[in-house]
Prior knowledge:
By secondary structure, this protein is of the alpha/beta class. 58% of the residues lie in helices and 8% in strands. It has helices at residues 2-9, 16-24, 29-32, 45-59, 61-64, 70-74, 82-105, 119-129, 158-168, 170-203, 205-209, 215-231, 241-265, 277-286, 288-292, 294-297, 304-309, 316-344, 352-355, 362-393, 416-433, 436-464, 470-492, 500-529, 534-540, 565-571, 630-649, 665-675, 701-732, 751-767, 771-774; strands spanning 403-404, 413-414, 547-557, 576-588, 600-604, 612-619, 734-744, 782-790.
Amino acid sequence: MEGRVELDEDNDNKGSMWVLDQKLDQPMDExxxxxxxxxxxxxxxxxxxxxxxxxxxxVFGDLGTSPLYVFYNTFPHQIxxxxxxxxxxxxxxxxxxxxxxxxxxxxxxxxxxxGQGGTFALYSLLCRHxxxxxxxxxxxxxxxxxxxxxxxxxxxxYAAKTKRxxxxxxxxxxxxxxxxxxxxxxxxxxGILTPAISVLSAVGGIKxxxxxxxxxVVILVAVVVxxxxxxxxxxxxxxxxxxxxxxxxxxxxLIGGIGIFNIWKYNSGVLRAxxxxxxxxxxxxxxxxxxxxxxxxxxxxxxTEALFADLSHFPVSAVQIAFTLVVFPxxxxxxxxxxxxLMHNTGHASxxxxxxxxxxxxxxxxxxATAAAVVASQxxxxxxxxxxxxALAHGCFPRVKVxxxxxxxxxxxxxxxxxxxxxxxxxxxTAGFRKQSQIGNAYGTAVVIVMLVxxxxxTLIMILVWRCHWILVLLFTGLSLVVECxxxxxxxxxxxxxxxxxxxxxxxxxxxxYVWHYGTVKRYEFEMHSKVSMAxxxxxxxxxxLVRVPGIGLVYTELARGVPHIFSHFITNLPAIHSxxxxxxxxxxPVYTVPEEERFLVKRIGPKNFHMxxxxxxxxxxxxxxxxxxxxxxxxxxxxxxxxxxxxxxxxSDSDExxxxxxxxxxxxxCLMNNNNGNTTSSNMDLTISSVDSIVxxxxxxxxxxxxxxxxxxxxxxxxxxxxFLKNCRDAGVVHILGNTVIRASRDSRIYKKIxxxxxxxxxxxxxxxHSVIFNIPHESLLNVGQIFYV
Length: 791
């Protein structure tokens, strides 16, 4: 990781300065602590059923509304032979069985990252099991987090060989990241296309009973519903979420019941479609037209990716129960009922869903269908917000405002900028295409590409994380690719009929995300290679060669180790520096969350009289850096706790483990409790200390016992003095020093690099949120230090 990169870089010129740097700025091995208390939560049967019921409204809305438009997109012109309906139904049945049921519900959902789903959740799992992350800001101490679960391999195992193969070349890491970004961009495309096709198909029922109605009226109603849907996003789903599950359950029961009615009334012979023989006959009878109709058949499994991305609040077992007991049978009945109706009404394929509804419940069904379409759209929009938040945490998306809409559920978020972009694009697609078939072609292209990306990532998950036998890996990958590549070949025929839309949308977002990530990596590499030597800092003396003015300076940096270049730039251009300097690093890890008690790591840099500290704040991709005063308050609380622990350590060394790297966490806690007369106000902080000043030779237990009393008195006095000094400095004022590194393409760069860096990245930096806004820094306390870096 970061330490290894630095060692490799300096391997050729190790000397006394290098050794001094290592001693004065040691890694935070001991500060991380070891908290291995992960457990599997068990649910009672009643609670599991309740969660399964609730998952219907969040997870299955998109998949459940597919019957609105599948047969129309499968037979956009007309049905030539009633037997074609049997063949299409057979394809739908086996598509639902192979992809959503077997692949996703029973395999892919188990690859969740502590309940989090989506392409970036899979990527985070891979980053923890192999060194494939492009930004090397992780350290081995991060692996000791309770949420940082990983497995080890035998040296000669197939998993170990795959790991070495992935880590060997940077190009392979970039290819893996690019694959993840493509999948993420297609999910964003789903967030645009799902509301468009679902709402348009639902409100299209108005025209069935009024054939003379102008199609513009249907488009207008759909646009009004979409504007209302996106305008309500800032309220979040928490306030109306309790309605989602009953609506979707009612929807499934109604379409299942109508399906049974239609099978009984029109043709129970459609149940022949459960035989795969009719698939073969369908392709033999229709040739190329049958092959291209797979683009419509595939819409029956749209929403499957949203199922995985929206997994966050429900255990996998609840999702499996809901799908197998409610969703799967109701969908099979709904499609079978529509097929039975079409066998007798071959000219009604364009609006098969509404025409197959019994007349007495037509309008109630129209209302439920519209409500279900809104719920399905909400689920996809929420999934889009979730994957963008994950991409942002991995440094793959420009900094945008993220708002929590629920106090109960951390995963329910709202991203204003993305919401309005989705709304504009969604309305443009709805009003521009005007036909469900073209939107369906676009939708199918996006969905099948996401599924292919998931299959490839799952292959690596099965090898590196699950360590499955190669036969199982081959079976899963082969079967998935055969089915999905078949669908992909079909949607390629429809690229010119609307399938180009998600490709253009994905290309635009991919350009944004990749350029942003490239700029982020280059900025980090610049900080890594230009960081200041600790020997140079020591050479300046305790005053750092400047006037030390009262106050605390918080220097923000992306480095978790080393003194950033902006600090040397600062002290060489200004005549004064604060009495206390704290280097603050806020970094995101490939875990879904970092527990609050493990978030901050604090250590001292250099001798005590320098009054320099480092604080690393660690976040998971689901965590939100709240815009309030908590961050600064918690930072100082942890800093003060560190000083107390450090002082106690000087008088409580009773173990041979006391070494250059500091003490164990438990030892520090015991010292703090024993020497503070039971005062444990900060004992829940999982901090250990590593201080150059407090290092002493290893002594025998007898000698330690004889001196512990006097040492305790001395350390208590030292602690009191330094704590008083720190509090006085804090009261004198806190200044936030932010580095503003601007990257520019060098003169000899290629034209595409100049466009990407000097224009695209510069524009994204200009419109994205500033760090000062994210950290809620008052303007009067902000100091920007600018520098230009050429790549």
